[in-house]
Amino acid sequence: MLTADEMEGRGLGTEGKVLAKNYIAGCFREIGLQTFDGLDEYFQHFELRISLAIVKATNVVGYLEGSDPALRDEYIVIGAHYDHLGYRPVNGRVVYPGADDNASGTAMLIELARFFAKNPGMMGRSIIFIAFDAEESGLHGSEWFISGNRVVGTENVKLMFSLDMVGMLEANRGIDLRGISTLENGTQLAEKMASAQNLAIRRTTADLPVRTDTYPFGIAGIPSVHIFTGMESPYHSPEDTWDLLDYRGMARITLFMFSFVSRLSGLPELNPSRRFARLQHPWALRFNAGLLGQAGSTYHEYPDDFYRANNVFAFSSGIFFQMHLGYRLTFQQDAMFDYNGSRSPEGTFRRSSLIFPLNLHVNLASSRGIGRFYSITGGYFRHNLRGRDGAEELDFSTTHPGGEWGVNLGFGGEINRIQMATVWRRGITNIAATNGTRIVENGVYFSLGYIF
Ligand SMILES: [Zn+2]
After folding, report:
1. Tens-digit pLDDT profile for residues 284-342
2. How far is the CA of 109 from the centre of ligand 1 (A)?
3. CA of 60 to the centre of ligand 1 (A)
4. Which of 93, 113, 148, 214 has minimal CB crowding within 10 Å?
5. Are 249 and 169 in contact (CB under 8 A)?
6. How far is the CA of 235 from the centre of ligand 1 (A)?
7. What is the pTM of this model?
8. What is the CATH class of 282-451?
9. CATH of domain 5-279
10. Where are the alpha helices (DSSP H) in 226-273?
11. How far, in Å, is the centroid of ligand 1 from the Cα of 101?
């Protein structure tokens, strides 16, 4: 149904997506889900900006009230995004049916709602069923639900599941429960219940995948689990068609989810795991390492004279370590080989050295786990290896036994695993204390990094 041609790949702004949302709301109505006050029946409308255009989008959401009076004010959210990539106007029209991604999850969402509605005694907590819009363009629907215009308080949402690509069980020989370890004892319970139903769990993780709707919930501190049959799938291609789905597998996952969520909904407490709670803390420590390459130009400055030498090409390369303090501050320690110099009428100065910049990054803007933009301030220590001034070989072990010091300033940005920055380096210590003239290093580098 959701993959039919008239659904137009459920792309943003298409009539097909309107049909899809009405179809889902029709199912919710027939099942008898309750509606939230303040919404347009099951529809939660919102707007998002795609470059210059404002696009309207709609989540479809309803709930079933839990049977336990002590727990029914708490919610478990089961979500699945129903939007997809739409169509491309190639040779007429190429539709992306998005069967595995994510008609499969949407269908499973509807079936789970039906199961729970027929078995009202099977849930202690209340359960929210939500078909998210605008996932493919950046998780807008889930973001809006949990931190935009809230219909329930974030503190009342105890657990979240995203059913995203669940139609390829057999091809992938099991399911992934990504993020299940964000819930205290979640992994053990899931493994026990899955093995009782003979369902293979291929992978359980503690991370928050950034490409599905669990992410905005996880950022809000809510344990969040992505149910996923895997990348062995024709997803994001026009070949992602309904006839390739493993319907028997989907039925098995639906049954597992029904019993698992039912069990969880009745537990006296649903807590974030200790590890996950620690990461939510504003001063949580995280560590990274990566590779760094820099290219730029350097020259020598004569601070006491009206004179400066000319620029020459310089480069550095090496490794770096990062320590993140929450999401505001990052310390980055680099260890690099640096080749720089300066040119004057007397000749060209060249040297190779080891340089150890230590910088503080203050994040001016950040989107957790995706990217950040920051200012750079810090200092460096330089150990000279060898050098040459014109024809003369330099002996740094006599002129600079203690090495050199200097400062760094700059700006940088990171997106996913790529780091880019512009850094200005200026020496404080004298390069050569010859003739009583002070000479210091000065340079600007463009820096490119890869984070492991
Ligand atoms: Zn998806």
Report:
1. 788 889 999 999 999 988 888 777 788 999 999 999 999 988 778 999 999 999 999 99
2. 14
3. 16
4. 93
5. yes
6. 8
7. 0.70
8. mainly beta
9. 3.40.630.10
10. 247-266
11. 5
